[in-house]
Amino acid sequence: MSGLRSWFARRLLIGLGQTAAVVLLVFALTEALPGDAAVALAGDQPDPERIAAIREAMHLDRPAHERLADWAAGLLHGDFGTSLVSGRPVTSYIADGFGPTLTLAALTVVLLLPVGVGLGVLAARHEGRLVDRLVSSVTLGVYAVPEFAFGVLLVTVFALRLGWLPPTAVGYGTDLLAHPAALVLPVLVLLSRPVCSLARLVRAGMIDALAAPYATHAHRYGIPGARVRYAHALPNAVAPAAQQLARTIDWLLCGVVVVEALYVIPGLGTVLMNAVAERDVPVVQGLAVVFGFTTVVLNLGADLVTHRFAPRAGVAA
């Protein structure tokens, strides 16, 4: 237990350092952006006095290190700043976009785990046979198709040709669960590549685990094959898959820009696109910090899962 506590404390300190690095990097990159937000907000024919007033109101006339200190202090208290365009708190933008993105992410993960793990186990059980070759070929082929192209194909077939599903989420607002038909195509697109990655990782892990000496000895002692597969081999296959699952959840929660833009879903990806188009720097900064912090937390969770199921791999990490 002491070793686990020290390992967790070390990983937590690394995560805090990564979060601080994300805050510094986000501020530095937004400071390096070309152009002047005050000039952009002043209109097509900006007046120098108006530009100066906007810069003073936005605190752009202060040194960068002072603005960084104030912004970081606000982040510690949950204050992400105020939008330059609307005057609304940045947290309200994040709250508005988080609901649709979380809905898509949750549905995708709920379907991803049984489908991805199931396909991987199925292929591993029939290694080298027709089922294994079929699963491997299909997952490789689907993974090679870009998300945008796959999404357009689904819209063309199921929405425009057959008319079974709505092509976009326009008119449904942010309560997507009340309109499940609008979620089918986006979730299918989001599932396509992660399912393939997870299935191939689980397959490889299961094959390695079933070929290990402990699995051979278990069979010699008469332990049923199903118990060897699911009680012994599968946990060892889950360890590397946990890292992939964390990256997938991070990718989903951080706003899938392509899918949200294609299906007009008002999630975090759409909020980010609008903020970039309007040069709304505080909103961009706030979203970038949220995305970076989410990545750090999910990677820490994946390390914990890996350490739980494969302690030696976790120590090595």
Number of beta strands: 0
Bin the strand percentage. under 5%
Low-confidence stretches: 313-317
Termini Cα gap: 18 Å
Question: Concise description?
Answer:
The chain has helices spanning 2-31, 37-42, 48-57, 64-76, 90-125, 130-143, 147-161, 181-210, 213-220, 225-253, 257-262, 268-277, 281-309, 311-316. It is mainly α.
Description of the structure:
This protein has 317 residues and is mainly α. It contains 14 helices and no strands. The chain has helices spanning 2-31, 37-42, 48-57, 64-76, 90-125, 130-143, 147-161, 181-210, 213-220, 225-253, 257-262, 268-277, 281-309, 311-316.
Give the topology.
Blueprint: H1 2-31, H2 37-42, H3 48-57, H4 64-76, H5 90-125, H6 130-143, H7 147-161, H8 181-210, H9 213-220, H10 225-253, H11 257-262, H12 268-277, H13 281-309, H14 311-316
Helix pairs in contact: 1-13, 5-6, 5-8, 5-10, 5-12, 5-13, 6-8, 7-8, 8-10, 10-13, 12-13
List keywords for this structure.
317 residues; mainly alpha; 14 helices; 76% helix; disordered C terminus
